[in-house]
Write a sequence for this structure.
């Protein structure tokens, strides 16, 4: 099967965020990441479009996405002091939603930077 | 290394000074290696701040840092002689004795160096888009991290609102973890508290934190299957070019849906006391 090529792809493994990676991929996985370093190559080649994990887990049992979102909203809403933390391995668009979440909850908001 | 108009000889035109408590592998790449005594970062930075302004510093104060006056004088000469200086600093500075006071002193040094030449300071980042988190939080709240909305408006106080401290003290009663795995990296008392409270995790993998959480939602990995923007360490935003189509939703979509689900519930403050900013749209 012919591989598709993406030029100047962005690698988000580390803080350098290299933006000159050439990716060779099919529908399921990335086969080659040219110009990427050892870490970047591992990052691109280890993620696939396969369904390896369940959509969601509630108390360790498999659940649907809708159930998990409802459960998450309930836990956060009922808490007096919820904490929103992390945001390093995610996009700016998702980070903006996280700020809105902490704002709406009246909770704490923190990232990896505080470590 | 890149050659440029102002640095035509590439690496040869640049000077790298490494400051560490032990000789690491990076020392080979550096031109000068300065071995500072552990826990003496603040003292060294303060001595540099004094000496760039030609203030007197005693030999004893310099000896305490583990360096000699000749070495420090040479460093200052190079710093002032540079066309463009940059201080990169990491967790060795911010997580040892003095903590954020060390970072504050270093940022002041970089600011004061601008009386002589162009000088900046930049934190070294580990994971992907930490810089983006800083930038987005600064844009949305005015503060980069360690924020509390408990009064309805953002307040900033690292040490009080920063995650490790909050978890170790057991302050929070729910945790929402996205794009991070504190279960693998944080001190044990913090992990114990995450086990006690309802923890919600969004991650492309089932992580250590997922295993101790009440809710785990699998999301598409950013930049590989989820589109968006990521900030480089020097605060340049980069568009992501996802190669794959994930069977999972993106972080953005999941958080937005959680937000919508919470918005349907009554607001946590009594009617009429809702802050104005919550209704304002950017």
């Amino acid at each position: 099967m012919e591989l598709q090529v993406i030029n100047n792809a962005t690698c988000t493994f580390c803080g350098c965020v290299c933006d000159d990676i050439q990716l060779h991929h099919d529908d399921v996985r990335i086969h080659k990441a040219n110009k990427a370093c050892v870490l970047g190559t591992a990052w691109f080649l280890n993620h696939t479009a396969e369904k390896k994990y369940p959509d969601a887990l509630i108390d360790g049992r498999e659940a649907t996405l809708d159930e998990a979102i409802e459960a998450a909203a309930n836990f956060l809403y009922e808490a007096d002091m919820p904490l929103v933390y992390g945001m390093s391995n995610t996009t700016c668009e998702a980070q903006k939603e996280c700020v809105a979440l902490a704002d709406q909850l009246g909770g704490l908001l923190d990232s990896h930077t505080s470590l | 290394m890149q050659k440029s108009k102002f640095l035509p000889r590439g690496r040869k035109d640049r000077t790298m000074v490494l400051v560490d408590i032990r000789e690491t592998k990076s020392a080979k790449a550096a031109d000068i290696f300065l071995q500072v005594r552990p826990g003496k970062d603040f003292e060294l930075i303060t001595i540099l701040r004094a000496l760039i302004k030609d203030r007197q510093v005693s030999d004893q104060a310099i000896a305490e840092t583990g360096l000699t006056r000749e070495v420090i004088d040479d460093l200052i000469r190079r710093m002032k002689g540079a066309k463009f200086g940059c201080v990169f600093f990491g967790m060795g500075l911010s997580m040892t004795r003095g903590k954020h006071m060390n970072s504050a002193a270093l940022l002041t040094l970089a600011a004061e160096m601008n009386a002589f030449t162009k000088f900046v300071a930049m934190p070294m980042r580990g994971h992907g888009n930490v810089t983006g988190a800083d930038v987005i939080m600064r844009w949305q709240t005015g503060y980069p991290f360690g924020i509390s909305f408990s009064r309805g408006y953002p307040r900033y106080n690292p040490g009080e609102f920063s995650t490790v401290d909050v978890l170790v003290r057991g302050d929070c009663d729910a945790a929402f973890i996205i794009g991070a795995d504190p279960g693998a990296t944080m001190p044990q008392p913090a992990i114990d508290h995450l086990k006690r409270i309802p923890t919600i995790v969004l991650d492309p993998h089932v992580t250590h934190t997922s295993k101790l959480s009440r809710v785990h939602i699998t999301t598409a990995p950013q930049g590989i299957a989820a589109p968006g923007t990521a900030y480089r360490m020097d605060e340049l935003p980069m568009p992501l070019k996802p190669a794959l189509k994930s069977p999972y939703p993106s972080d953005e979509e999941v958080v937005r849906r959680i937000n919508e689900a919470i918005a349907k519930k009554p607001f946590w403050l009594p009617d009429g006391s809702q802050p104005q900013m919550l209704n304002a749209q950017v």
